[in-house]
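DM between two lab members

TW: hey, do you still have the Condensation domain-containing protein entry open?
JB: yeah, one sec
JB: this one, 660 aa:
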Amino acid sequence: MNTLSADSKPTTVSPPISEQFQEGHRKSWRQLGSFETLLSRKAAAGPQRLSIPHVCAAVVDDGKDLLEPHLVKRALSALVQRHPKLRACIRGTRKVDGAPIKGVRRGGKEVDPLAWWPCAMTDGEVVNNALSYVDVPTSGDAVDVSLQPGGSHPPPFEWEDDRFFFAYHFQRALDETDMDTSRGPLWRLKVLRPMGARREGRIALLFLFNHAISDQTSCNTLIHELLDTVEYIHSSCLDHQPTPGRPAPFVIPQAFPPSIEEAVLGPTRGTLSLTTLLYASREALFGILPTTLLPRFPPPSYTPRPRVDPEGPPERPPPFLPAATRRTICEFRTLDSDSLSMLRAACKSRGVTVTAALCAAMLYATSDFAHGQDGGGGRPERGHKQQKGRGGTYHNYRLLLSLNMRAFGRSRKDEGREGGGEEEKMWAEHAVASAAGAMDFMVRLPEQRGSTLSLRPERTGGSEEANDGMEDGVWEGKRDFWALTKRCRRELVDFIEAGFVAESVQLFDWGMQTIELNDVVEKEAENPQTFGRAYTCGVSNMGIFDGTGRSRLLAEGPNSDGSASVHARCQNGEDRESGERMRVIEASTPSAAPTAAYGPMRLRGIYYATSHSLTGSLYQLSCGTVDGALCLTFHFPWPLVPRSMARCFANRVLQILQCV
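TW: and the structure you got?
JB:
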């Protein structure tokens, strides 16, 4: 096995990793899955520009300066040996010959498929290519906000306090991350150090990923393993020997993780069933219904250039606000531990999860901001016909809820493999992989729904009987909020029980194999009716960072409830064969509070996002609980959502969570 010494890099006494993977430097590990193919696509800005990068900032108190280059490099070398995707690259063109119709892949032959290959680098070279240190100014220092030619950037981020000193680099990384996928590595780590006296030992670890190798659960694993390994090396150096009774962490290399399609579908991949058709009908209905996808205010207008030939045909204007002019902007907030505890208690008393409450809060804030009241102007959403009802004009909102597909992965027993128990999943527990999926549903609400709540941070936090003293209007608004929360929770349970988790993967995989779905995405991104917006709002909740590299509950997913752990499992093998009906079977309260301490270091927050410039939601929230507080990252497509609206929207969601 591998060993990690205090004064050297990890040494290998087992066969080299390249031999374990069939001489990996000369042979690929496997072809990319359909989800990985879409997530690895490049932007039109350049051959190395990622279109959907995954960015995460981990804020760490490091008063003793453990996160210095020599310790971090040695720790990263151990992680690179352990996780194959950290030393992977992507080769191939995905070219198809002989397809009968342009844009259709069926009937053709894929002559150069995309495949995962090991980087032609040593572990040390991988680390040197990925790691960098940056000194960043804080709010009292001068900031270099130089923009690229053309003025296509949003206004620079103006942070309100030094907790979010990483914001400028975080936001730019969402649209300006370049990686040579054919060479690798497909990740970067920037250690951001505040300048001057304001540093106070606080550091941000800014991870940048090609989304095809990662999800937030994977990033949490890397954060934990990096901090734990750095602390181990440091303590070993102080004692001149490893801590007695403590084994060296994270030295066993993992096998290359499977794709989502392989892990969830297995031998049923490519087999369409009646359940698949039901799921497809559901999604088609959502696509037909009039849906609010854009805010009702006029963005900047396009002014065509003068024609060179006055007698020639008039110039055809480019798409309105083309994708190349859009950027993702972020707002960062924190729900303190006291407010989060009250929110958990309120959710628990009503039998719902915190994630369901987050969905309801996003929908309420959307109803307040998407129709011009706070944004000015007005143009109707696609296909909308006003319908008056109690509480005002009603609108349809489509919400995207992220899921951690690890909870639905097949086990070795399902595959008929030896050496695996029923619960041994094809995804290793701490595998670095892209294993995130999603579900969506439609909700109909009147405008200004959030205004029915008393937007003050006052809450009894208990049962409904405890709110008897409220004004009738405020009480009715909160009652409707909790009814919507239960609706969001029910949508998730119904989605799982209907077997739609696997069918969503099946249908997407079929689409990627049948048509040039990347071309469809690019075309929709330039559609002036939607500007690439497929959803009104979205929620991703990674759960609680528990100090073991895992996010408790269904990380990134719907069941993340800071107080009750809800596990989704398959009942038995017969259920899998009949459509993989899933059910929520138990709730258990954690027996111990999670820890985020690593010797003298302490993890204070995790903020993460993906780019929504090309396609995605109009309003997106990504969040997770770290060190007792809820860290919230709101991301929006600018200029579809101006900075002023983004700031007010984030504040509104926070107010709703504090008052319900």
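TW: got it. The CA atoms of residues 356 and 485 lie 5 Å apart. The chain has a mean pLDDT of 75.
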